[in-house]
Records
---
Amino acid sequence: MSSSSVPAYLGDEDLTQETRDLISSLAKEKGWLVSEMYQYQGRWHTQALLQGILICQKRFEAKDSDIILVTNPKSGTTWLKALVYALLNRHKFPVSSSGNHPLLVTNPHLLVPFLEGVYYESPDFAFSGLPSPRLMNTHISHPSLPESVKSSSCKIVYCCRNPKDMFVSLWHFGKKLAPEETAAYPIEKAVKAFCEGKFIGGPFWDHILEYWYASRENPNKVLFVTYEDLKKQTGAEMKRIAEFLGCGFIEEGEVRDIVKLCSFESLSNLEVNRQGKLPNGMETKTFFRKGEIGGWRDTLSESLAAEIDRTIEEKFHGSGLIFSS
Ligand SMILES: Nc1ncnc2c1ncn2[C@@H]1O[C@H](COP(=O)(O)O)[C@@H](OP(=O)(O)O)[C@H]1O
Ligand SMILES: C[C@]12CC[C@@H]3c4ccc(OS(=O)(=O)O)cc4CC[C@H]3[C@@H]1CC[C@@H]2O
């Protein structure tokens, strides 16, 4: 990859010998954005994110008080980070006297660390130094989570999104992230790869279903929310998240203020989210595009939408999970 906006952890520099040895034994495919992606524990990864996951699996020690936000890419990660950060810090940083709220001057990705990204960039990063309760996010699949995440009483909030909107969001994100690499790539090919599961973090259906069943088996451990419900009833979903996390009583005014501060209109118009880059090289504005439900209609032809619908029907049939659009 050559574009300047491409983050460090999409590259293949700084790989340890251990990662190189493992990679040499893994199935390999050419990706849409990356020239090589590797299949590890059933999922496709860039070399850098794979190394981040390996280090995370080895080193991350979950605490009972931890909160981990889990998503597939482009399913509402940035928004969920902002909402939960504002919720947990509502006494320290009241949103009503909001002139100096951290979210007004800091991109949500800098307030909530991305586990495998941080472990790739800074393998010795001291997660133990984060204030309690520690709030972090990951795209790691349920079976691949570090053992301590599964065995401790830490809480997981999983947010999923209608796969058609998720794909379309990824499509535009990829084009912004690496315009040269993606310019000549046909959307038909990308939809095919997405439906075959050969996309970073994919297959998307395994990711969603594993957390879906985990939330049904252990509702005190995993809370399952959707981008669509968050969009339609942000306040009610935020209260559900707050109750799950044991945040205690929240006044209606506080809920309203947090919902407003974290809305697409509010966050996407802040200077900090319009200009500038994260330290990893990604432009902050790439995380905000339309922020709508059903926006896939502007990008997908009927036949491409039908191709994704067929995959959804095949993979989610009988699961009880229904995507609204
Ligand atoms: N505050 C917010 N409210 C609603 N959607 C938001 C949001 N912030 C970002 N998004 C949307 O969430 C998607 C990015 O997901 P992620 O944060 O997981 O990378 C993008 O979707 P679109 O590309 O459909 O607009 C982005 O616009
Ligand atoms: C994880 C990430 C969002 C997804 C980005 C991504 C999406 C699709 C890709 O296509 S393919 O090469 O697998 O065919 C590649 C990538 C690589 C970067 C991914 C982003 C890094 C941080 C974002 O949350």
---
Amino acid sequence: MITMKDIVREGHPALTKVSQEVDIPLSHEDKALLEEMIQFLKNSQNEEVAAKYNLRAGVGIAAPQLGINKKLMAIHFEDENGKLYSYGLANPKIVSHSVGKAYLAGGEGCLSVDRQVEGYVPRHARITLKATDMDNNPVNLRLKGYPSIVFQHEVDHLNGIMFYDHINKDDPFEVPDNARPIE
Ligand SMILES: Cc1nc(NNC(=O)[C@H](CC2CCCC2)CN(O)CO)c(F)c(N2CCN3CCOC[C@@H]3C2)n1
Ligand code: NI
């Protein structure tokens, strides 16, 4: 099972590399990795398991965080309406996005960053994302709000971008015009 010791931390070169696309259909190895990544997220959201294995809670994880520079990412969370987002995705691509921006009012963190980094992380408010899922089916997702932010955080990892790269250095809490806070 994946635990925190498997997650590389900032300074590790895998986190700032652009990862490679994977072959479709997925190899058994890549599919198994996506399954393990989803299981990690479920474990991290389960109080008993997270306490037992000392897991930090996560709603998404990307393969570079495991030192693997492949375009593989996993997402597992329920939105405020209880809609479940649970995906193991290969070769995700943001094919279109809104002009408008959005940001998490509480800022962002990262399982690969062992420190608090203050500030708003401006992202696209709405995205259309294309990818291939674990069963080799094409996925076409239109996302807004909290889900849109989570998916963008993970896609960034596949391009070697960390959340703090988006924070305004001079004024971390500067709100870009036409940006909307997500509580
Ligand atoms: C927002 C949030 N970020 C948590 N952690 N950080 C992460 O997931 C990083 C990715 C997120 C950081 C900002 C956007 C994406 C991991 N990353 O670095 C991957 O690249 C959470 F854990 C969390 N939730 C809310 C839902 N809750 C359900 C019940 O279980 C606890 C869980 C806690 N919300
Ligand atoms: Ni992260």
